[in-house]
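User: Please run a holo structure prediction.
Assistant: Happy to. Please share the sequence and the ligand.
User: Here you go; the ligand is adenosine monophosphate.
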Amino acid sequence: MRLIFVGPPGAGKGTQASRLSAERGITQVSTGDALRQAVKAGTKMGIKAKAFMDAGQLVPDEVVIGIVREKLGSDACRDGFILDGFPRNTGQAEALGAILQDFSAPVDRVVAFTVDDEALVARLSGRRTCPSCHAMFHIAYAAPKQGGVCDRCGGALVQRDDDHEDVIRKRLAVYAAETRPLLEYYEDRGLLTQVPAEGSVDDVYSALLKAVAG
Ligand code: ADP
Ligand code: AMP
């Protein structure tokens, strides 16, 4: 199955993608995770990307398109993928279309997760992640068993640099201006299914399974 997950920051794309990936064995491709790895490794690309990420802006298209082209061409994606956080503007969507045409691998469905802005701010400001194994928590909605410690690997949880309220609001504005137009773009191509994502993680997952079943 070849899927694209679209939605504002905090909508639950990563949470749902990692569950679907684990249960169905479909490779999750997160441009945000790839960029954070490059930042952590101190590569030239990471150093360039960090300034955009910390400001809540999109990293330049050529950087993320390069990442996606490489990942989608790998063996891990031969039988399918979940694109989590890409594309984020119409230029990226056009580039993705060309890449997938090269690979003769059309997208099956684009799932758009919808959540109200204030709920997004609450989700993002409480998000904690494990830099070692990438597990995701929330201080109230998905709290780790022991505060600040990853349930899965015992690593120390961190708050992302861009999960502070001023940057969160900037990211929501960038989503509205640059990414939301993709809903119409994919609707016009008959690929879009909207999934209301304000319920519990389990409820959203059930709705997701229905969305990708048809
Ligand atoms: P995205 O990948 O869309 O930015 P995440 O999957 O990282 O979003 O989720 C953002 C935060 O919200 C995380 O802390 C996660 O634990 C929490 N979260 C995800 N889905 C839900 C949900 N359905 N209800 C409450 N909190 C959620
Ligand atoms: P995410 O982990 O998806 O919330 O992304 C975190 C940050 O990485 C975003 O705010 C952007 O700065 C950058 N980023 C991730 N994916 C993309 C993309 N497709 N295009 C441009 N920037 C991206």
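The chain is about 50% helix and 15% strand.
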